[in-house]
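Quick one:
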Amino acid sequence: MAKVYDALRRAEEERKRRSGAPSSSPATPLEIEPARPQPRPSSSSSLWRRLLASAGGASEPVGDFNKRRISLLQPDSYVAEQFRSLRGRIDAIAAQRPIKTIAITSPLSGEGKTTAAINLAIVTSMSLGRRVLLVDCDLRKPKIHQALGLRPEAGLAEVLSDTVSLDAAILKVEGMNLEVLAVRGKPANPSELLSGPRMQELVEEVARRYDRVILDTPAALGVPDAKAVAELCDGLIMVVRADVTPHEEIESALEILDRRRLLGLVLNGAQVDQGRYGYAT
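Output:
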């Protein structure tokens, strides 16, 4: 395990050397669209309309964009119910041992880990009296702020660099009991920030403040970021795509990560008979 992790770190250092990026260079701010005047949301339905409108400036198809928050836009859908089932399974495990912080990852990119992280955070925040924090730990290709229509002035990189406080960086999702620590600046040294002592302090702090913390990490293969974050969390969920993710890649990812923290696998993109498992209307 240590040899695999060291190999990932060496690959990351080689990537930086070739790109000529110094490890101490400041974070590069994300390009965020100028705010457009919008009515202040007064209900959950107006929140949905605002989020749908925010997808208009996204660089990806609106359909794919909205899948990332389907539990919010279509709370009665079959997919939303599956995320509620996932929440219930996690709560059942949490009754046996403490599970406050959960890392979400996948072997490769494009397998749906961010979608799973967002929707799990949404349905978890629907539980009465439960405070939930969603953390975007993908300092390379962050997407959570776009999916939720947020405009962060500061984010995870700034908190880890001690340039802003945690309270100043956290954003509240209107109409929900959900808060988000997004990404504003993309640093040149993401692996070092995520594996540093400040990240450990941050995870410990949010675990004290929130009932459940969901951390969306980069894919486990190729960079060491997911392993660094997973080692700080109480549990780990791996997302794989049906008929796409090779079995060998899943085994490689599990070899890199700590299997003892694995809560389970989420199979994304599977074809199922929804009528067989849902209620008839």
